[in-house]
Amino acid sequence: MKESSDGTTWTAVADNWIVNEKKGASLEWSKVDGSDSNKVLSGSEWQLTTSDGQTAYQITDSTKSVESVKIYYNGNVQSETITMTEGIPFDLTASVFGNGNKTDGVPQGVAWTATGSVVVDDNGKVTAVNDGDGTVTACSLAATNICATVNVTVPAGTIIKPTPKNSTTFYFKAEGYTSGNTKLRYRLLAEGNEDWSTEDTDPVLSNATNCSGWLSVTIDNPGLKAVEFLFYQGDSWYHSGSASSSSNFTLSAGQSAVAVQDYRAVNGVPSGCSAGGGSGSGGSTTTGTVIITGDSVVSLGKTITLTATPTPSSDTVTWYSGNTSVASVTAGSDNTATVKGLRAGTTTITAKTPSGATASVIVTVKDDSTVGVYFKKSAVNSKWSNYYLHYQKTADYWPAVKMEDACNGDYVVAYIPKADAHKGYGFLFRDSTDIKTGNWYGSNGWNTNGDNFTFWNNGKGMHIESNSDKGEGEPSACQTTRSVARVKARVPANRQRSSKTAVAGSGSSTTTVYSCGDALGKCDMNTAPGYFKVTDLADGTYTLTEMVAPNGYTAGGPYTVTITTVNGVTKVSITNAGDTAITGNKIPNTRNTGTISWNKVSSDSNNGKKLSGSEWKLTKTKNFGWNDKDKAEYTDIASADQKLITITDCVPAENKTAAETTCSAPAGAAEGQPYDVDPAAGQFKLEGLDWGTYTLVETKAPDGYDVDSTVRTFTFGPVEGSDVTGNWNSNSVAEGTADKTGAFTTADKTYDSDVFNFAVGGIKNQPGVVLPATGGTGNSWIYAAALVAALIGVVAAGMALKVRRRQ
């Protein structure tokens, strides 16, 4: 098959031997805890971008094991033998399944292999190379031991034989060498001699049906080049000259047939045999050619027209579809055909003349129909500068699509493939491409915890006026006509590429991002959580960017991936921004650290002023670590080893405001030791707290107030016995009394970044006997009244004593 210069014409005068091309390189890495490289982390998502910045692959961590593979023929699971029709190539597809016979989240890549009478290419196209039986096998790339196999039979005389001027037939007769077991080893001789065939690609000889006693096979030989060759069966090799010779046979250029017997080769067909009679070459000799012209892409439910031009022109052609579930083909007049797209995918469309000349084209059926998801800007007060739709394409994958203005700018809209709108699947809106950062709007409103919106029906778009006002289809305010376009999620390049990535050409502003499920996408082929493997990558430089970090960690990178092949040896390296190689391709993530903030306030409800001058003691009492089962573990720190950290209130200097004040660590403080970073008096904020358990207790109260000696405990990190994908510790404050703040409490919670931000609110102090100069009456009158009563009591006692003395 040959493509013409205009990209629309294919010429086939011979069906070539199909040999799997050399696969590209594999990139492998793992995601680990930067504090414990033995802990592999699951849940990260990545983007691998080509050096020109135009193409990127969304890589999601595959964690679902492969359980089975199924092969489909014409859209049906194939369990019986396939009999090849007229020697016409056909297409197989394969799906990979996990638990519950489901494909969601399971890597779909397979490796195709074939034996016997057929060969198969990387896309599942099956071509006959001999009469007889064969097999085709598809094995999961993620679990190479899990495969499916179908049997294929090629009836005698049905193989399409190449034209004589482009092929050479080898006839062979020798005692002990049998059909189906004898192979030809050869190479074509020309300027820059071609490589020898290999054990995997050596053609197999079969009985010549009209040439008694002979075996034969035909190879493609454009231009009838000279050939060096020999035969073998198992470990026995048949050379030129004698049984003990080690010389190879040589066929001169221009020969379409050669017969080998008694260790010598004679040009031409054996005496008594007719040309093209070998079953290995199949049927009668092809005498013409055929060319196919036309488009190679058809939309789902639409049609295209292909035209076959045979030589001689008097020939008529018969049309075939390699996968009738993907596209049908109907013959028209003047050797034309109408191809209709039935299901998204690819199929081989073949035209054959009565003399056996064939041509094939690969036709792609694309589902270009889309549905719109509309969002009214006023739901977020039109304050966002960017709008992205995040929608659930599969159970585990949420792509981001940039939304564009619609309906006179009152709405934004994103068009997604109709097939991606699954009933019950979720979607939400964000001003960021990262699902875990930025502002967002879901079914509970703006920046609130809650559920996602969901599609109400398959293949139906939605419009969202607000979280309480939504419906299917376009908004009533949008009476516009839209042309159907081929949709691919596009994200601005400056959001998806690092500064190290070159951009090809000027004005290039977008990167086409392919997901695992796309035809041009790439998947994580390692189903172990936290381990990644991306296959079939061409040599070059890529940027690897972590788009979503595992729960509780900060995304790293970007990283540079370099793939080079020299003399058949491929090297793959991953380096960080400092051009330092990542050891063992273990990419580390830094743990997020905790922040706690509180205010010091009076228990007097009428006194709203923050109280300065308090001091605190922060103590870490338990260390966090991963145990030998990769679960969270908190270990007590011995009392003698606990570090007591004094926290003093950072306040503005004299004649300075809080905005003009920078808080700094106290003199002599250890590196990394937390301190108050909030410059407002009476407000405290500690940052950079490692995972573990802490206590906080007040050691000095503001002037005029009693010390609150309550020991309050809080914890940052995953719940004991959990993993990053499980529950996390979330801190809060128990309900207190009117005069006292409640104790800290720690509960389990599904991960959200707010588990690292513990905002306590106000911690109350009760006033002492010295009245504070903070204004207000509140409950201070109680203390004043008690003081007055005491003074009255003293006076009364003195007067009573005088009376007794006078008496």
Q: Give the overall pLDDT as a whole number.
A: 82
Which overall shape is indicated by the principal axes computed on the Cα atoms? elongated
Our estimate of the beta-strand percent is: 35-45%
Structural class: mainly beta
Major beta sheet, strand line-up: 44-45-6-5-47-49-50
- Stretches with pLDDT under 50, minimum 5 residues: 1-22, 276-285, 479-509, 770-778, 801-807
Describe the biggest sheet?
7 strands, mixed
Number of helices: 2
For the termini, the CA-CA separation is 136 Å
The number of distinct β-strands equals 61
Helix fraction, binned, reads under 10%
Rg, rounded, reads: 39 Å
Descriptive report:
This protein has a seven-stranded mixed β-sheet with strand order 44-45-6-5-47-49-50. The longest helix is centred in the C-terminal third of the chain and has 27 residues, at 780-806. Helices cover 4% and strands 43% of the residues. The N and C termini lie far apart (136 Å). The protein is elongated, with a radius of gyration of 39 Å. The chain has two helices and 61 strands. A hairpin with a 4-residue loop joins strand 29 and strand 30. It is mainly β and 807 residues long.
